[in-house]
Task: inverse folding
């Protein structure tokens, strides 16, 4: 097969201008490796790609088989090949391809998962690296279920310690943890290690708004956001666009008057994919709420002043929360992940971008995500930038100062 290299010129210009990688993709019918002709052609093409783009970032060559499976390799500026460790296809369905089989027998603790969703899905779960941001009420259920589904690695982020007021809803926590002021991530890490189901754990007892944490979360295959502030949700949605990571957002809301009167018990699970709609375009929050949340976090006294003077609307603080609602929404989100890894529903996954449950109003509905978000779409695949995610607080020069 031959093709005119002129088609490359506009792509190379774009790659050079935006610091992007060029990926050459071609198809094979059944032949599941690079041929000697591919080797010759890649070695002829890529050195000139590097010199044109004039950057050190790698470029790659990928083959698609008729089954849809993909595999590929980075081709260096001198024509050396290195297999891509994984190819992630992030759409309504989630597909992950690895160059090698794990092989061996499924351990006893994995057999029930394999029975339900097949060896391939079990194998995939055991290789995934998943971030859980927010390890409190909802997050602790998400962590529990991911670990019991034998995911390969969990990256846990939460700056807080367990307090007595949390004990009604954080799984695996007890009074001794509150008395000792143990961090929520340490409690979760202990519980996962005690299971011994093969899950590795990395913990960050830190706020999400730090460069180290953002980089660690960006290296994950999937992100679960169990946070209740709109600025953290906005940041995670941006991260999903910059780093092409699928993002599950969980929200739980309980409106009560503090004296036993309950107006609303509801929860949502949003699935966000790069290039699709966003929490913002779905109307989860407004720019004004985003600004108020940022001010509350970075400058509490200015927040109070603006609130008192009526310039901003207050953000909700210390909302009531109960274990059974958190567990319900977390279960819904984990089921959503499994349905996207291993599609089993009658309707296509695109119909399930949002799940909404209201226990007070007896509603369970699901819907599509709507039009693509123009604000997020322009960040697709930008990867590392300075400041990270174009977020002024994450600037490296600012940190140095
Ligand atoms: Zn070929």
Result:
């Amino acid at each position: 097969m031959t093709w005119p290299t002129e088609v490359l010129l506009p792509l190379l210009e774009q790659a050079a201008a935006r610091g992007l990688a060029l990926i050459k993709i071609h198809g094979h019918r059944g032949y599941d490796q690079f041929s000697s002709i591919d080797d010759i052609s890649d070695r002829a093409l890529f050195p000139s790609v590097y010199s044109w783009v004039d950057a050190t970032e790698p470029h790659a060559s990928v083959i698609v088989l008729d089954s849809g499976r993909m595999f590929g390799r980075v081709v260096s500026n001198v024509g050396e090949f290195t297999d891509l460790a994984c190819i992630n296809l992030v759409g309504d369905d989630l597909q992950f391809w690895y160059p090698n089989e794990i092989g061996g027998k499924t351990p006893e603790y994995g057999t029930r998962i394999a029975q339900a969703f097949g060896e391939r899905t079990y194998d995939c779960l055991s290789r995934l690296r998943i971030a859980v941001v927010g390890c409190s009420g909802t997050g602790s259920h998400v962590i529990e279920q991911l670990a019991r589904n034998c995911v390969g690695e969990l990256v846990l982020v939460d700056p807080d310690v367990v307090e007595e007021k949390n004990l009604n809803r954080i799984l695996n926590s007890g009074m001794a943890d509150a008395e000792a002021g143990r961090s929520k991530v340490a409690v979760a890490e202990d519980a996962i290690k005690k299971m011994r189901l093969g899950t590795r754990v990395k913990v960050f007892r830190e706020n999400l708004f730090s460069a180290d944490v953002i980089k660690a979360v960006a290296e994950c295959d999937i992100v679960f956001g169990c946070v209740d502030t709109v600025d953290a949700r906005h940041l995670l949605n941006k991260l999903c666009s910059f780093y092409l990571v699928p993002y599950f957002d969980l929200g739980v809301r309980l409106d009560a008057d503090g004296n036993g009167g309950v107006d609303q018990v509801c929860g949502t699970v949003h699935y966000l994919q790069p290039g699709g709609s966003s929490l913002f375009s779905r109307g989860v929050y407004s720019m004004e709420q985003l600004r108020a949340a940022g001010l509350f976090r970075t400058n509490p006294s200015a927040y109070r002043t603006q609130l008192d003077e009526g310039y901003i609307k207050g953000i909700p603080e210390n909302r009531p929360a109960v274990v059974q609602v958190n567990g319900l929404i977390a279960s819904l989100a984990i089921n959503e992940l499994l349905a996207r890894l291993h599609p089993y529903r009658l309707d296509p996954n695109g119909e399930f971008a949002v799940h909404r449950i209201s226990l007070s109003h007896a509603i369970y509905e699901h819907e599509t995500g709507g039009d693509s978000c123009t604000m997020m779409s322009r960040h697709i695949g930008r990867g590392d930038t300075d400041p990270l995610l174009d977020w002024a607080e994450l600037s490296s020069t600012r940190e140095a100062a």
User: Anything to note?
Assistant: The two ends are 55 Å apart (CA to CA). The chain has two domains: 5-84, 114-400.
